[in-house]
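Summary of Year 1 activities. Much of the first year was spent building the evaluation harness for sequence design. The harness presents a backbone, in tokenized form, and records the residue chosen at every position. We chose the following record to illustrate the format because it has been used consistently in internal testing since the harness was completed.
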């Protein structure tokens, strides 16, 4: 820092001296030479002191840019004003105002050149210019997709002594063609990638468009795959905003990048203020959804997050992660089962949570078909135990994580989740606890889902197993699902079934093929084997049951399914009987009782692989939500002091 001050002092002295000789002719200079002897040290003293107090020597001049140049210009103007004030107050010597103007200009220029030189030397640009062609040996030749702010940041990073050389950029904006991103030219459009790779001997491609839509990423990836070189991408815009990655972190393209829908990112900070200082209980906290819920809740400054789960290893991992990533948030890990009333009541009494996110459940459809007793004890009994404790200990909000498989269920798992929905809707009419439900489709990458299975099969060189060529599913990312759940907790007044517009369903076989291509395989390299739809599975899932009405909310992609006017008379007594059968391990009796309690439950044993898709009439209970859902726009909020969503 002191060395920089000394260098700056010399430069200021030189600039002031030069300004003197620029302003005065040789004959005038001789007459006014006495002025120079006191003006130079005064200029150095005033300017360096001003620069010091304005913090110009605290910055890292390796990164000198527009902001730093503006800061320098302001400091130079201020120091010139102070210099003029000092000379006027002294009143002993007169000199033309133009001398001060020339002095300011030259000082600003030499100081700017000083700092820019530091950056150029640091980045090795001066050495490159001396070479005449800027070529950098032994560096991997990179093509950047995009020519915007993200690409500019990547080019800058590569110029700071990395092992990469940015050869060029591609962008579909015709106005950018032929222009430069720093010293890197825009060589063509995205469709030109394969040709540019061959022409310029590109060794790697970097996709620098964090805000790219899924369809745009699919197109870019196709061109990258055609070029037959390695390609990577910047993190998504959400990863950067959430602080999980920076713009300099490159990663492989993953299936979430190519998901055939646009992610719905919600601003939770301004809409979930009630969670600040709140004690929050998350059941199933070790699972995919539960752990992501904890990550989404932690930045909202809760007073306490209680991680509740039966899985010891999973809780251990999320507990370690939470303490590392969010050290300011108090976290308590509790091992226990939601079906254990004594344990649940002990936790509720001790921690007194204000909000419960109930994500614990048995979710594997085929496994629950052969273990219906366990499905009932965990999904139905566990939900009832939690709801009873929530009422007893004054929980304000209770958010139940449901599934599209609860809509006209064909499986035991779906039927038990639908039973949980019915149970909470019944309680809502006569209780201070706000019970609300969030219903959505499959989650990409969750434990036990198709994505990890496909990845493992591809890595091991085995055939990818798909149940049926026409099977479709709604997909969303884990973070998006967790955001919806947290957001719903703030919106809900009690009794709502929240639904996310999940776009169009995706064919599972298309998902498998896309994952194979991302792994560098083509159609000839991978075998897709159809194994038949398993018991309890449907070819197509729906998000609305027959007769349910979809109502819009002030969140563009969040809707409310107005519940069926289903009778719940005798539900509590029937549930007692169901649980008794499950405790006795009477699997046949459990399935029979489920049909009785959940009228829309119609067991589906299996499909043959070659069987045609059943007509919509065969699934009359399903109301498929594809694209933009049909919404009753006539409904208005009841009062301004309540949540703004519309209810019937």
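For this record, the design step produced the sequence shown next.
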């Amino acid at each position: 820092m002191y060395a920089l001050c000394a260098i700056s002092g010399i430069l200021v002295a030189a600039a002031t001296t030069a300004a003197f000789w620029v302003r005065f002719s040789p004959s005038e200079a001789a007459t006014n030479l006495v002025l120079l002897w006191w003006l130079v040290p005064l200029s150095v003293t005033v300017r360096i002191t001003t620069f010091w107090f304005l913090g110009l020597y605290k910055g890292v001049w390796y990164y000198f840019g527009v902001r730093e140049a503006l800061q320098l210009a302001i400091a130079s103007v201020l120091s010139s004003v102070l210099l003029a004030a000092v000379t006027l107050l002294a009143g002993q010597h007169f000199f033309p105002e133009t001398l001060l103007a020339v002095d300011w200009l030259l000082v600003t220029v030499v100081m700017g050149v000083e700092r820019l030189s530091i950056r150029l030397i640091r980045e090795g640009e001066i050495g490159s210019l001396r070479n005449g062609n800027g070529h950098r040996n032994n560096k991997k030749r990179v093509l950047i997709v995009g020519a915007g702010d993200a690409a500019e940041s990547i080019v800058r990073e590569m110029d700071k002594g990395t092992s990469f050389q940015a050869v060029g950029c591609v962008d579909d904006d015709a106005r950018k063609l032929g222009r430069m991103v720093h010293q890197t030219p825009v060589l063509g459009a995205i469709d030109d990638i394969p040709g540019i790779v061959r022409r310029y001997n590109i060794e790697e491609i970097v996709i620098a468009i964090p805000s790219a839509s899924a369809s745009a990423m699919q197109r870019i990836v196709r061109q990258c795959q055609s070029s037959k070189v390695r390609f990577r991408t910047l993190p998504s815009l959400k990863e950067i905003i959430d602080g999980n990655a920076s713009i300099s972190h490159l990663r492989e393209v993953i299936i979430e990048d190519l998901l055939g829908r646009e992610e719905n990112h919600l601003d939770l900070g301004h809409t979930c203020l009630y969670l600040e200082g709140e004690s929050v209980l998350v059941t199933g906290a070790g699972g995919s959804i539960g752990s992501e819920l904890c990550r989404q809740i932690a930045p909202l400054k809760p007073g306490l997050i209680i991680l509740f789960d039966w899985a010891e290893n999973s809780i251990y991992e999320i507990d370690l992660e939470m303490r590392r990533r969010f050290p300011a948030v108090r976290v308590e890990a509790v091992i226990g089962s939601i079906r254990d009333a004594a344990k649940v009541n002990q936790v509720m009494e001790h921690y007194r949570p204000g909000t419960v996110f109930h994500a614990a459940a048995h979710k594997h459809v085929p496994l629950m078909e052969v273990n219906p007793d366990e499905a009932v004890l965990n999904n139905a009994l566990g939900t009832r135990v939690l709801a009873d404790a929530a009422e007893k200990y004054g929980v304000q909000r209770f958010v139940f994580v449901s599934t599209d498989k609860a809509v006209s269920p064909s499986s035991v798992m779906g039927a038990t989740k639908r039973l949980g929905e019915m149970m909470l809707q019944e309680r809502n009419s006569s209780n201070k606890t706000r019970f609300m439900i969030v219903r959505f489709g499959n989650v990409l990458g969750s434990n036990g889902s198709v994505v990890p299975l496909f990845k493992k099969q591809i890595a091991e060189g085995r055939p990818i197993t798909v149940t049926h060529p026409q099977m479709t599913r709604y997909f969303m990312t884990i973070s998006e699902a967790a955001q919806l759940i947290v957001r719903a907790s703030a919106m809900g007044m009690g009794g709502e079934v929240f639904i996310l517009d999940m776009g169009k369903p995706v064919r599972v076989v298309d998902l498998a093929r896309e994952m194979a291509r991302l792994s560098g395989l083509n159609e000839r390299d991978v075998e897709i084997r159809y194994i038949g739809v398993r018991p309890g599975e449907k070819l197509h899932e729906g998000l609305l049951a027959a007769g349910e009405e979809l109502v819009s909310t002030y969140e563009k992609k969040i809707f409310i399914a107005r519940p069926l006017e289903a009778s719940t008379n005798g539900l509590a007594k029937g549930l007692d009987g169901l649980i008794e059968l499950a405790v006795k391990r009477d699997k046949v009796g459990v399935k029979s009782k489920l049909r009785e309690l959940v009228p829309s439950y119609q067991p589906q044993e299996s499909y043959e692989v070659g069987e045609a898709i059943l007509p919509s009439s065969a699934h009359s209970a399903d109301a498929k939500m594809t694209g933009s859902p049909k919404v009753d726009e006539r409904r208005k909020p009841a009062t301004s002091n309540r949540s703004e969503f519309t209810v019937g």
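The two ends are 68 Å apart (CA to CA). Quantitative recovery figures across the full test set are reported in Table 2.
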